[in-house]
Amino acid sequence: MTLEYATRYRRASRIPARPGKPYFVEKGEGDRAHLFGDLFTVYAGGEQTENTFNFFTCEGPKGDIIPAHLHPDTYEVFYVTHGAVRLFVEDTEGVQQEKLLTPGDFGFVPKNCPHAYRMERHHTQIVGVAAGPGGTFERFFENLGAPAEEMGLPREPVVPEPHKFGTVPEQYDVRFLPDHQWRTR
Prior knowledge:
RmlC_Cupin_sf; 7-stranded antiparallel sheet; 10% helix; RmlC-like_jellyroll; mainly beta; Cupin type-2 domain-containing protein; 3 helices
């Protein structure tokens, strides 16, 4: 039996709305959101962890690079379970790196480090964890994109309205860097 909870973000969720309550979530039954061509599924967020970390998956097709951005107060990890992801990272001294991550590979991005990624194979899945003194950013995906009731990738890419880029990222410790250039490739 799987329980459903009402939360301030959704009318029905498999994730309890407050911390200190053990729970289980079956595969794919977390809080889902579509953003661009990807599906993000949150299994634990700030509400459950007292804003100490989040745990989510990102699934998507081979595609375009996710724009360069940074998180001023949040550390982020990328762990690939299926497919391949090319991770681009720049440290605080300006040294850039890129690495192709395949199943079992791990990438760590410290706070304040510009980064971007690109799914290199169809049916790619990343497990992500983010933590930092500013809290967690998992609700960014559904607020910039759109909450998804159904499982699976969006039928059509979910492209945010331009005004959302000016307000939503800042709320969730995301700063896009539209003029950033990657020199690694």
